[in-house]
Amino acid sequence: MSDYRNDISEITSLRERFGESWSAINPEHAARLRAQNRFLTGLDIARYTAKIMREDMAAYDADSSQYTQSLGCWHGFVGQQKAISIKKHFGSLKGKYLYLSGWMVAALRSEFGPLPDQSMHEKTAVPALIEELYTFLKQADAWELNHYFRDLEAAREAGDEVAAKKAQSKIDNFETHVIPIIADIDAGFGNEEATYLLAKKMIEAGACAIQIENQVSDVKQCGHQDGKVTVPHASFLAKINAVRYAFLELGVDDGVIVARTDSLGAGLTQQIAVSQEPGDLGDLYNSYLDGEEITDPSEINASDVVIKQNGKLVRLKRLASGLFEFKKGTGEDRVVLDCITSLKNGADLLWIETSTPNVAHIGGMVNRIREEVPNAKLVYNNSPSFNWTLNFRQQVYDAWSKEGKDVSGYDRAQLMAAEYDGTELARVADEWTQNFQRDAARDAGVFHHLITLPTYHTTALSTDQLARNYFGDEGMLAYVRDVQRVEIRDGIATVKHQDMAGSNIGDDHKEFFSRENALKAGGAHNTMNQFG
Q1: pTM surpassing 0.70?
Q2: Is 141 a known ligand-binding residue?
Q3: Is the pLDDT confidence value at 527 over 80?
Q4: Which of 208, 227, 345, 452 could pair with 101 as two cysteines, CB 3.0-4.6 Å apart?
């Protein structure tokens, strides 16, 4: 028996126990309310979605074609419509997550106004957005179930047993819109205690997976900006521990930690690592610091910082800001060390921030990591900061050149130009782009593909297109042709925006509560009826 039918039986027994004072309570109506609100707290959501992620990770380990995907969503409504769309087009949300981007929180959700991705926004905005996303996803459950319940009632009233069984089956086998969120905690917004406190708020809001990066918190930069500064491993591992303790305290025992390394593009560190003996983790970190050998102690000046590196005294290069430089060309080695260290000390998944989307480059690093940790796997940022068209056209150009194929008809530096759109090179590049996620899942250990801020761009693009035509000569035709007509013909639920916002749900609730006295909005004069 389904939960819905069990609830009807349970509430029927309750009504009988409480007698006449509960005579107005319809057990089926109460069961409907329970069905539309399956998750009572954010912790219920975090526990449920953590289990999903763990199962998906195991499925990927067995078969790399079973990778997962997400899109970054900056508002609850955006996340809701994404989930509704996936269910409509693919029938299931399996393997589909939400990503909560710190970049978009900064740019779109801060009370300071739009900010760059530098951890300057209110830390409370992050758990607030998680809670908002899940509020809208739960409302999507209520909205879809409400239609099924109405179908069931209509079928019963018509005496149509076939339609009634179909509606009942949809209710009994309903798949929730509540899906995992991978949530960006940046560099922890402070020390390890601050990280722990914020992680708790995020988990309480529903986050089952928290992504944390190895940058210095107070000078954090977007992964695709310059000036990134990393911390020694001990500092980063303390924050990983803080997140794990937060999960354990709140009973989300299988919560997922995504350890991100920015070392590939970070040339600076704020601290020299503490080393107890040659070859330990601190010594390895310090071995990548740039400097010059000193053979005479009298060469050391008062403000110099000198360490022993590979048995030699080395004066470290230090900027006026007090930051230390890493040796050029050590980024990949530092990435590999970061990743192995994180996985061996509590992280579940990796995130390597790269400058281009290149499967061979990513895979080369992952293969090195897997020499130490065979089941290492990545969350990978399919970033809008990459010029995907130019990158893949140049990758094809380079591959053809290496094969000896004639590329004289192409200007490598200008391959973004529209004049190349119809060429064979452009066609192949688009194929490589289309296959990037499956290729990276197979050859580069990518378990989860996400786009950090796609809905930032889609919002801007669709608004520009509507504004250009609506405020131009087309007027209302711009909205009717490019928005409403498409919504109607593509079956997009928001065309009935009153229903999507909950008016039908509210009407049914009013009927539960007030019965024949209910004043409902969905009558014959509701213009929503024009949409059938």
Answers
A1: yes
A2: no
A3: no
A4: 452
